[in-house]
Structures are given as C-alpha cells and as structure tokens.
Design goal:
Number of strands: 6
Strand order of the largest sheet: 2-1-3-4-5-6
CATH class of the largest domain: Alpha Beta
CATH topology of the largest domain: Rossmann fold
Shape: elongated
Structural class: alpha/beta
Radius of gyration: 19 Å
Oligomer: single chain
Length: about 220
C-alpha cells in the first residue's frame, strides 16, 4: 500500500501545489507547521492567521484548497469558523489539528463540516494520511481518539428509552445535534440563555443521557432528528 506522502505526490505531481491556509494561534505550533509544509513542494502556504474571524476572511479572499484549523482560537473558535467557511465554500477541505479530545467537540467539528480530526502531537505520517483522506473526500479520525467515538456509539442500555419531547425540545435537540452551544441555541430560537439551558436539561432527563454527546447519539440512532 502506498504511503500517504506518495498518495499526495502521485495525485498532485502534474498539477499545481495544494494551496494551504494555516489557522493556529500558538506561535511555536504555527512555526512547526510552516517548516513542515514549506519544505514540501506539494503544498503552497497562502497565509497563516491566528483567530476564527481571520480564518473566514482569508478563506474567502484566498480560496485555499486546504485549511489546517485549530479549535481553541481567540475571538471565534475553529468549529464555528469551519461552519461558516463550509457554508459558502464547501469544497475547501478542513483538517482539524487540535489538543481538544472531548467527544462533543469531535462531533461538533464534523457537524460543522470538518473533513478530518487530528490530535496535536500526531506523527507526520498520520497528518499526511488525514490530508490525503480529506483530499479524496473521505473522513479521517485520529486513531488516538477513535476509541472514544466507538465507545460512545455502542448500543444504548435499556434505560435509554426515547421519551416524548415537546416541539420546542425537538427544535433545541436539532440545534444541539448540529453542534450548537447553549448561547447559540438561545440566539437561534430567540429565547433566553437560562431557558435554553432548561430545555437541554429536560432533554437529557427525558432521554436518560449523561451528557450532550449521549443526547446526540440517542437522537441520531432513534431518528429523532
């Protein structure tokens, strides 16, 4: 089986380099990514930015083929930035490269349109594999955290029976599954933050879920959304 490096090279040997936008606020990490991709002729770094709003602006102006995106960014996080970029530029591939390992962030990242999810510290081989998968239109999840998702998706216990939800709770549930935070749910439905939190707590109680990730999994498996 060819290595991911060869896969990228073979698929792009006769075409222009992959235009790359780096979105990372850590200067040491940003320097490392710059050194990594600057020395690879298959990539052309078009810009490096440090927050989510700058990422949206750079993506709109420069139309890169690929974005390496951190999640924990100032001003606007990488998940929200990815969602906005993908809404207008769906063909741009986004590889999340982050230290965040929480299940709800992984689910929210993919719900926002991310094509791959890698944990910082991953090997060069794994990162290039993620890029190759994204380039081919496939989804890539870092092996370091894949087990967490597998555990989350295991069949639910009998106590997790689907309860009857109100119409408003179904609206909140849809937004929750789409990766929205409580403030975003409140804004979308024109309700107060405390009301949004109350709806989320009620949904979790009715679905016998311990957290938002379990709520999303139960809802998706049961066809509620």
């Amino acid at each position: 089986m060819p290595s991911p490096i060869n896969s990228i090279q073979s698929s792009s040997s006769d075409v222009s380099p992959m235009r790359l936008l780096i979105v990372e606020d850590d200067p040491v990490m940003r320097l490392g990514l710059n050194d990594l991709f600057e020395d690879n002729s298959q990539f052309e770094i078009v810009d490096q930015v440090t927050d989510g709003y700058a990422a949206i602006d750079a993506a709109s102006r420069l139309k890169p083929n690929l974005i390496i995106m951190d999640i924990g960014l100032p001003k606007l996080d990488g998940i929200a930035a990815t969602q906005q970029i993908k809404a207008t530029l769906p063909d741009i591939r986004v590889v999340m490269l982050t230290s965040h390992r929480a299940e709800h962030e992984m689910i929210a990242a993919f719900a926002s349109g991310a094509d791959a999810y890698c944990v910082k510290g991953t090997s060069l081989e794994q990162l290039l594999l993620a890029i190759a998968c994204a380039q081919e239109g496939a989804t890539y999840l870092d092996p370091q955290i894949a087990r967490q998702i597998v555990e989350t998706l295991k069949p639910s216990s009998p106590k997790q029976n689907i309860a009857q939800l109100s119409n408003r709770e179904l609206e909140v549930l849809q937004l929750l599954v789409d990766g929205n935070s409580n403030p975003e749910i409140a804004e979308a439905l024109y309700i107060s933050l405390s009301t949004a939190k109350a709806h989320v707590r009620s949904i979790m109680n009715k679905l016998a879920a311990d957290d938002r990730v379990q709520v999303a999994v139960i809802a998706l498996r049961s066809g509620l959304v």
